[in-house]
Amino acid sequence: MIVLKLPYPPTINHYYGHRGSSKFIAKKGKDFRLTVQEIVAANSVKMLTKRISIGICLYPPDRRKRDIDNPVKALFDSLTHAGVWQDDSQIDLLEVRRKEVVKGGYVMCVICEE
């Protein structure tokens, strides 16, 4: 089991940028990816290669209206980039819960190989 406390992800609109028909990872996305990579390395996480279940608790930074699924894509992209798993297609079970507002916001992830 892997338990990670991560910063609250940027919205998809801030994670990715667009230039014409090209899509790229924007500065906020790159910064988030780097932070996740540092946290994963500090926790000595070894890459998971089997099927995965993941539980996510979202602690938003403020009371703005937010779609519960919006942070998941940026989070999965960053965890893949950090080497937690080979690809997010390994995930068979996903549970996402919105929790209370916490100044600055964060995300708790519990990841298990099945």
Explain what the structure shows.
- With 114 residues, the chain is α+β, with helices and mostly antiparallel strands.
- The protein has three helices and six strands.
- The strands form two sheets. A four-stranded mixed β-sheet has the order 1-6-4-5, with helices on one face. A two-stranded antiparallel sheet has the order 2-3.
- A hairpin with a 2-residue loop joins strand 2 and strand 3.
- Helix 2 crosses helix 3.
- The longest helix is centred in the first third of the chain and has 16 residues.
- The mean pLDDT is 94.
Total of helices? 3
Strand content: 25-35%
Biggest sheet overview: 4 strands, mixed
Count of individual beta strands: 6
Q: Order of strands across the biggest sheet?
A: 1-6-4-5
Q: What is the distance, rounded to the nearest whole angstrom, between the alpha carbons of the first and last residues?
A: 10 Å
Q: What's the helix-strand series?
A: EHEEHEHEE
Cα shape = globular
Residue-averaged pLDDT? 94
The chain-level structural class is: alpha+beta
Overall helicity:
25-40%
Rg, nearest Å: 14 Å
Point out poorly predicted stretches.
none
Q: Key terms for this structure?
A:
two-stranded antiparallel sheet, 3 helices, about 110 residues, alpha+beta, four-stranded mixed β-sheet
